[in-house]
Amino acid sequence: MLDALEKMTLTQQEQFKDTANKLLLSTFLCRDKKDNNEAYYFLMSYKQIFDEFFKILGYEIELDMPTGSVMLSGANAQTTLKLKRDESLVLLILRLLYHEKMKDTSLNENIVCAVSDIHEKYDYLEIKKKLNKTDLISSLRLFRRYNLIEVTGDLTSSACKVVILPTILMAIKSEEITEVFNTINKINQEEAAE
Predict the structure, then answer these.
(1) Max alpha carbon distance in the chain (Å)?
(2) 135 exposed, middle or buried (CB, 10 Å; 0-12, 13-18, 19+)?
(3) pLDDT tens digit sequence for 52-105
(4) Model pLDDT, residue 178
(5) For 128, what's the count of Cα atoms within 13 Å in the CB-facing half-sphere?
(6) Are 28 and 147 in contact, with CB atoms under 8 Å apart?
(7) Domains of the chain by start residue, with CATH
(8) For position 147, what pLDDT does the model report?
(9) DSSP 8-class letter at 29
(10) How open is the CA angle 72-118-64, to the nearest 5 degrees?
(11) Cα 191 from chain centroid?
(12) d(CA 47, CA 90)
């Protein structure tokens, strides 16, 4: 691995460092996201070197070429993000919306929803504790940082558009969408028991 890195130009070495750090910070890369595009293709060009590098750190790169998604996995408990209840519910709702809207679009189109769609789905699921605006905005900012969504517009507006990136399929790997519903129901039941 070190030999391969030494054979790179200084620009390539810098790009390797930037791409590795981007993946360490955000866990996910999406080919279709503007600020991920260059890192995604660089990683693809030097995937074997990245694999060796991350293996030393205890990570593994998972790749979904049809969707253009990359995920860094294998982290230990210290580096795993623990989501709050509302963050978990918003993430699950985004996954449901992705699934529903995917039926109406082609593979090459972005999956777009409005912030109001998230609220509607939340209400439809009859979750007892209502989602307040501050928690929703905080959750969406978190998921944007992890390259699961892109936001176009003002997050405080219910008309704000949210692009759900295909990396969400790697974040929630449920093959069956009913598993997502079951997880939401479990969270809802735990809340009712408290």
Answers:
(1) 60
(2) middle
(3) 999 999 999 999 999 999 999 986 656 678 888 889 899 999 999 999 888 877
(4) 79
(5) 11
(6) yes
(7) 2-73 (1.10.10), 85-193 (1.10.10)
(8) 96
(9) E
(10) 25
(11) 25
(12) 32
Question: How far is the first Cα of the chain from the last one, in angstroms, to the nearest whole number?
Answer: 52
Residue 179: which of 95, 120, 113 has the closest Cα?
95
- Give the other-Cβ count within 10 Å of 95's Cβ: 23
Length of the chain: 194
Q: CB-based contacts of 24: which residues, under 8 Å, 6+ apart?
A: 72
Q: How far apart are CA 194 and CA 183, in angstroms?
A: 17
The residue behind tokens 């912030």 is 115
Would strands 60-64 and 111-114 be described as parallel, antiparallel, or unpaired?
unpaired
Residue with tokens 């997880």: 183
Cα separation, 98 vs 92, whole angstroms: 10
**pLDDT digit string (tens) for 97-152?**
999 888 877 666 789 999 999 999 988 887 778 888 899 999 999 999 999 999 99
**C-beta neighbour count of 30 within 10 angstroms:** 26
